[in-house]
Design the sequence.
């Protein structure tokens, strides 16, 4: 069992009174139990009153996510399951190294599903992580939360198969963020027979824009800000960040819409003071050149600044996702229907952001075409908003156990 | 056709700005047209970027390829059976290496150009040579790479060559002592890679308290400072430290890459790296690839007259540098002189991959 004494290299950022090794003996809670929602909403209050936390939009967004009103809204679709679903027991979360606040969402979902949670943070330091962990530690040690105090452990350790194995051995669900390489590494550690992994692999995301509908919108700048939040906010490296834009409409309208759209994006980039590192620019140029050599019929658009590099595709190729690069490299394709797009969708495709489409109709297209990818269909600007349905998983259902009574 | 005999007959540092521009621009236009005609991949790239050989009106118009492209793609501008040698970069284990295809003519021109340039630092006479590396470099085929090519290239300027390190990377103290006895009172040439010299020559001299008298030596080194970054070794510190342990006073760094072997950028006595007439550098701003002012930091683009069998005559490197001036270095050499600031740094990735 992982004890601090055995693993001096495990650093506990948040810890109750008991050792995490005892977690398998704890009683799981029903989903959305007041003990958990109460804790999260107290945490929300602390973060919302924390001046330092207020400096970080991602921490503020997380604090908002944990507000009691929002938790109540999240709970609604699960009302009928509250009597039958309880936590599976212990969840072991492997957080990604580069989205600072992601660990907190993962933890919140683990708690809302009624589990005791062990969260492994990467070694990379972020002020956001420290702020949230400090707040959690404080709230957890209030008397009122004594009942769940031992249900949380947030740890940090250097990559270690041995420690991964120790935590894996005692968990019922393992949640692996961080992409293909992390998944492969963590999977070297065996799980108990009934346990399983919820994995968040490397994904590829795209946007579809109805050119005419876009041109009819009033707030082009607002759309561009939303697009910025979907992409540049994470240097286009989030798995939800669109890398391919499919424009739907007649050629003339599409060209007009593109000009307006990228003009607005340029203004937003300037206003936000966004810039690329030199290495990112070289990465993007290298990726474009490779794409030119590997894909047919490509034209590289002239761009004023390297922060936006655009490649015009005259046909869609299933190898396209091999040529992705962060930092503002966009492939664009224009058509009059979504048929060509549906043909290249593979398991790798995750989020479809849209302008001017009915999300229900897009979902119908995904299902009717029998494609293996696209798990999320969200409006432009909302690509990275966290939700309890993620990557095709209903996380509450995944992390809880349904007791069937007939 | 390009007449390389005529090109290489031009004295390496003889042309001032206007004259050099006329000389090298013609070669660049010619090479771009040649690769466009003979290398389908190169043509595809230029077409996709909307560029063409005819559009080149000045040196800054010459399209550049990111140097990394040679790692993922085999780019050739002559028939396969004309290739006599494939050079590879010394990638760290596990990473892809560049593949550079050489025909007889390109290979010979590399040797000639290197000789024309090196004479300024070494002189015309063939000097007794100490290679500051291990003989294993040339024996192990996997290691035959930029390091091997560099050693072979500089070996032609020396005679009675010995290696300072044995195959197990131990300093061959006896061999060096014997060599210096045989060549007492002679000028000596020492060649090696910056990192190897520091790690396996300087450090070992210090460790063994072995202080050979190399005050008659000329040391040529290249390969960059990247691997020494964590030791905070600057060129100045490097020179001083070596001077302390072996009395060497004439230490010249060079900058170059396996993709443009031959047209290296040698440092002068002032410590400035110089572009010869056979090559040039342009510093590019990373935000829009526009050419930077002299004194302004940016990504280094290198242009070389030699690459004929592969489209490597204009490359965007992954190094940052700054042009210090042109035609007015105190050393008297004409052409641009510059400083390399190091590799561009690996980006801090924001996003959800790579835990």
Sequence:
């Amino acid at each position: 069992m992982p004890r601090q004494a055995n693993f001096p290299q495990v650093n506990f950022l948040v810890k109750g009174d008991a050792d995490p090794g005892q977690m398998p003996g704890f009683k799981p809670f029903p989903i959305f139990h007041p003990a958990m929602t109460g804790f999260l909403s107290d945490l929300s209050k602390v973060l919302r009153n924390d001046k330092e936390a207020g400096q970080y939009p991602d921490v503020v967004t997380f604090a908002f996510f944990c507000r009691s009103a929002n938790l109540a809204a999240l709970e609604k679709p699960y009302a009928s399951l509250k009597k039958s679903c309880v936590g599976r027991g212990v969840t072991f979360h492997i957080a990604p190294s580069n989205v600072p606040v992601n660990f907190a969402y993962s933890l919140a979902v683990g708690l809302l599903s009624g589990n005791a949670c062990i969260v492994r943070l990467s070694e990379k330091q972020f002020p956001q992580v420290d702020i949230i962990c400090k707040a959690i530690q404080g709230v957890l040690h209030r008397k009122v939360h004594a009942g769940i105090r031992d249900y949380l452990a947030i740890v940090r350790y250097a990559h270690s198969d041995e420690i991964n194995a120790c935590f894996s051995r005692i968990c019922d669900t393992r949640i692996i963020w961080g992409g293909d390489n992390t998944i492969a590494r963590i999977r070297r550690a065996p799980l108990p027979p009934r346990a399983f992994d919820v994995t968040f692999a490397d994904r590829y995301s795209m946007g579809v824009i109805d050119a005419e509908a876009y041109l009819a919108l009033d707030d082009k700048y607002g759309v561009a800000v939303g697009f910025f939040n979907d992409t540049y906010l994470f240097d286009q490296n989030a798995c939800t960040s669109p890398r391919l834009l499919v424009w739907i409409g007649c050629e003339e309208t599409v060209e007009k819409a593109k000009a307006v759209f990228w003009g607005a994006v340029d203004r937003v980039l300037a206003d936000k003071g966004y810039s690329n590192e030199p290495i990112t620019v070289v990465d993007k140029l290298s990726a474009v050149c490779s794409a030119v050599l590997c894909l047919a019929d490509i034209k590289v658009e002239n761009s004023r600044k390297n922060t936006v590099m655009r490649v015009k595709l005259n046909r869609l190729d299933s190898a396209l996702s091999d040529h992705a690069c962060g930092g503002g490299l966009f492939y664009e394709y224009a058509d009059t229907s979504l048929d060509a797009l549906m043909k290249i969708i593979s398991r790798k495709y995750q989020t479809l952001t849209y302008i001017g489409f009915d999300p229900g109709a897009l979902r119908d297209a995904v299902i009717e075409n029998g494609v293996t990818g696209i798990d999320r269909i969200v409006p432009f600007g909302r690509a990275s908003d966290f939700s309890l349905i993620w990557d095709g998983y209903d996380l509450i259902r995944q992390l809880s156990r349904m007791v069937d009574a007939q | 056709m390009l007449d390389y005999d005529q090109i290489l007959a031009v004295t390496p540092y003889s042309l001032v700005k206007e004259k050099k521009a006329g000389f090298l621009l013609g070669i660049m236009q010619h090479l771009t047209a040649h690769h466009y005609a003979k290398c389908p991949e190169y043509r595809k790239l230029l077409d996709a970027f909307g560029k063409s050989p005819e559009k080149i009106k000045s040196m800054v118009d010459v399209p550049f390829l990111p140097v990394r492209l040679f790692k993922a793609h085999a780019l050739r501008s002559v028939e396969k059976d004309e290739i006599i040698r494939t050079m590879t970069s010394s990638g760290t284990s596990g990473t892809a290496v560049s593949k550079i295809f050489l025909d007889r003519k390109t290979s010979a021109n590399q040797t000639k150009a290197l000789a024309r340039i090196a004479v300024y630092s070494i002189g015309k006479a063939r000097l007794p040579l100490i290679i500051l590396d291990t003989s294993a470099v040339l024996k192990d085929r996997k290691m035959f790479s930029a390091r091997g090519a560099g050693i072979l290239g500089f070996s032609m300027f020396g005679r009675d060559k010995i290696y300072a390190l044995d195959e197990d990377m131990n300093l061959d103290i006896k061999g060096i002592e014997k060599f210096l006895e045989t060549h007492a009172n002679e000028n000596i040439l020492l060649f090696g890679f910056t990192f190897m010299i520091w790690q396996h020559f300087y450090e070992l001299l210090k460790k063994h308290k072995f202080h050979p008298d190399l005050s008659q030596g000329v040391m040529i080194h290249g390969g960059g400072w990247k691997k020494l970054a964590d030791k905070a070794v600057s060129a100045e510190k490097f020179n001083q430290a070596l001077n302390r342990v072996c009395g060497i006073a004439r230490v010249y760094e060079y900058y170059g890459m396996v993709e443009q072997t031959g047209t290296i950028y040698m440092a002068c006595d002032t410590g400035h790296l110089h572009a010869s007439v056979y090559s040039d550098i342009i510093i590019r701003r990373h935000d829009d690839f526009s050419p930077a002012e002299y004194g302004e930091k940016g990504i280094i683009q290198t242009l070389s007259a030699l690459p004929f069998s592969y489209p490597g005559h204009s490359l965007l490197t992954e190094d940052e540098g700054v042009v210090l001036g042109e035609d007015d270095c105190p050393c008297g050499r004409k052409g641009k002189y510059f400083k390399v600031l190091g590799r561009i740094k690996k980006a801090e990735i924001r996003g959800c991959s790579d835990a």
Summary: Residues 127 and 358 of chain A are 39 Å apart (CA to CA). The first strand of chain A starts at residue 11 and ends at 15. Chain A has 14 helices and 17 strands. Chain A touches chain B through 49 residues (CB under 8 Å).
